[in-house]
Specification:
alpha/beta, Rossmann fold, 2 domains, 8 helices, WalR-like, CheY-like_superfamily, Transcriptional regulatory protein CutR, Sig_transdc_resp-reg_receiver, DNA-binding
Length: about 220
């Protein structure tokens, strides 16, 4: 999953981004409403974590425009206001969920993952194929009953490929889904990560290279 954090408090934004990365969620940060609207045009996000009181273009207007112009993007609105009227207004603007500040980080992660599931076709929360079982909530991977320890990026790449259900994904798609905007599209990051992931999972190789196109999950043959 890739999340855009639109929050004008740089310390809070950086803390949220660091926490999400530990949860294998790629995250980018902007600090005003205009930058948020520009970012969703330039990049692909499943969820926008939107501070309601953004400077410049107010968070309310950002929310309304996202709902109108980018209906596939889910919006989780953050605000210090806690009244029922504030929550109702947020939903009327097009927010998919609402979380008052201060909040507990595990609840934020749970709400983000719930919105991710709503933004995609229904799929089982635990993925199981070719002897590999991936639990995105416990962040555990087993191969034939053996626990496989993966780095956050390896886990994110495997999760993205397994969700594709045998489809071929290019390196650019994997960068968009598993890394943030600082990833260099001309580096060999994806190739190295896939290579390390194959080794950790062991033979038979569970990730196949499709020459000139990308990668797909599934053992050969």
């Amino acid at each position: 999953m890739r999340v855009l954090i639109a929050e004008d408090d740089p310390y809070l934004a950086d803390a949220i981004r660091a926490g999400l990365r530990r949860e294998t969620i790629a995250a980018d940060v902007v600090h005003d409403g205009a930058a948020a609207l520009e970012a969703v045009v330039d990049e692909t996000y499943e969820v926008v974590l939107l501070d309601r009181d953004l400077p410049g273009v107010h968070g309310d207007e950002v929310c309304a425009r996202l709902a109108r112009e980018h209906p596939h993007v889910r919006v989780l609105m953050l605000t210090a206001a806690r009244t029922l009227d504030d929550r109702v207004t947020g939903f009327e603007l097009g927010a998919d969920d609402y979380l008052p500040k201060p909040f507990e980080f595990p609840e934020l992660v749970a709400r983000l993952r719930a919105l991710e599931r709503r933004s995609q076709p229904a799929s089982p929360p635990v993925l199981d194929a070719d002897g590999i079982r991936l639990d995105p909530f416990r962040r555990e991977v087993y191969r034939n009953g053996r626990l496989v320890r993966l780095s956050p990026k390896e886990f994110a790449v495997l999760h993205t490929l397994m969700k594709a259900d045998g489809g071929v994904l290019g390196a650019q798609t994997l960068l968009e889904q598993a890394w943030d905007a600082n990833a260099d599209p001309f580096s060999n990051t994806v190739r190295v990560t896939v290579s390390n992931l194959r080794k950790r999972l062991g033979e038979p190789w569970a990730i196949q290279t499709v020459p000139g196109i990308g990668y797909r999950f599934g053992t050969a043959g």
